[in-house]
Amino acid sequence: MTIFLQLLASFIGTISFAIFFDTPSKYYIYCGAIGSIGWGVYLLSLNLFDSIIFATFVSAFMLIWLSREAAFGLRAPVTIFLICGIFCLVPGLGIYQFAYDFFVGDSFEAAKILVQVIQIAIAIAIGITVGYEFPPRFFYMYRRQQKITH
Q: Which of 87, 86, 111, 89 is nearest to 98 (CA)?
């Protein structure tokens, strides 16, 4: 039940961010689904490999893959889906904990949290970069469009 609630919360949170990001309303459901699937992949990877960094990388890769599929299928920019979908992976709590520990004076704990936040941010960036490197022919919706137009 907890996993279902997390997936539901990620769906609603992603749609909320899409509204805040001023995404066209016809893409809200797609953004929510991509964000929720990305969070589900994160939870599954975290459970299987017990590594926050690897789970973040795999989830970011899946998010860019799904965002590119949606972009090809809906003929929209990839960033609409990616920026909204990545919302759940951004280490906001870690950044808050770092700032709190830093200003309270617990330098050791702040440094430890900062390293983990940077590792997560790098994992997100590398996952997105790897996903962007695939040529369009690897995506189903792109190949489908090519068949329809030819």
A: 111
Cβ atoms of 110 and 101 closer than 8 Å: yes
pTM: 0.89
* Cβ pair 21, 85 in contact under 8 A: no
Amino acid letter, residue 68: R
Whether residue 102 contacts residue 108, with contact meaning beta carbons closer than 8 Å, is answered with: no
CA dihedral 66, 69, 71, 75 (to 10 degrees): -160
CB 92 within 8 A of CB 113: no
Express each pLDDT in 16-33 by its tens digit: 999 999 999 999 999 999
- CA gap 140, 146 in Å, rounded: 10
Q: Which two tokens stand for residue 49?
A: 């490999």
The pLDDT of 69-94, averaged and rounded, is 93
Position 136 confidence tier, pLDDT thresholds 50, 70, 90: confident
